[in-house]
Write a structure and sequence with these properties.
P-loop_NTPase; AAA_14; Rossmann fold; 2 domains; 16 helices; alpha/beta; 418 residues; 5-stranded parallel β-sheet; 8-stranded mixed β-sheet
Length: 418
Amino acid sequence: MMEIKRDAYLQQLTMRKDNGMIKVITGIRRCGKSFLLFNIFKRYLQENGVNTDHIIEIALDGIENEELRDPKLCFKYIKDAMKDDDKYYLLLDEVQFMPRFEEVLNSLLRMSNIDVYVTGSNSKFLSSDIVTEFRGRGDEIRIYPLSFAEFYSVYEGDYDDAWDDYMIYGGLPQVVSLQSERQKADYLKNIFANVYLKDVIERNKIQNVDEIGILVDVLASAIGAPTNPSKIANTFASERQMSYTNKTISNHIDYLADAFLISKANRYDIKGRKYIGANLKYYFTDPGLRNARLNFRQQEPTHIMENIVYNELLIRGYNVDVGVVQIFDKDKEGKRVRKQLEVDFVVNQGNQRYYIQVAYDMTSEEKQNQEFNSLRNIPDSFKKVVIVNGSKRPWRNDEGFVIMGMKYFLLNADSLEF
């Protein structure tokens, strides 16, 4: 099995080493958190002079460590492993399997010679507990499935094949090692049902399993389209003759987001400089899981491409919203009407901002106008970027918009700086 380098994450861990905080590595199950900790980071520690007997490893999701899910036993086990006053490194995997884990971690924080790293696959109890329990002593590192650049670094084949593969089967590390398309499809369908959905249902004690299953399908077919719980409730009522209340839908969407299966993008009114509450957009953390859920039927490249760009921006550490520009236009009768133009992404990092449109196809004049029109109506001078399918190198058109191919965007970590 080839090893995929995940240098960006390793760097985030090494920068935080010995900083007196608990390093919490979060992300969807099976995205490579355990491998990062137990293989890549452990090797780094060993190469930098840490003795193996000063590295304490506990994987709580393994049946062999079932008794260590008891907080008192676990704490005792860790204390007993620490034989001297030198620095110890604790690598604790899937911490959500332990009740009252915050108390264990808090007790460890009081010891000066242990540096703690934990992984978890649910944001709810991690982020909310870390903020309150550790009072600012928790340090979160979010891990994603493979970015396209990571995927491509071990792919045997050319860019076009890799891109097609990634658009269909996504970037979960296990998928890369599977040979046939059938194996990949079966693996994704199987873990969606038996790992992710099962986790969400059990953790949140969901009674009506059919509802959340259909909800996942609705969200999967609507990636990149603005939607909200009442719209979804109406769909259920009209198409399925099912009553599924807004409140329940809203809760179920939160559960899926807490398990890192989906992300919510807020809509931002660029001219009014405010968030618009209604109609969020939802994207899947992994396009392969999304496609598997729909039995690989709906393959609209535009939406999948948009989803991949969204994930890539998050991986690079940007804050990403969906933009709306209000304009006034004339209708057929010449009356002045108000229109909303969409900007795919409003991307912020510190004082940097970018506006990004994602266009699979820009061959027709009409399509170009549609993509450029919202950018033309933005009243500030931050950089405006259009990402198109293919491997075009970046260039600036006469309106000052940067146009670049998907390949350039994905394979150059600083592509937005062009």
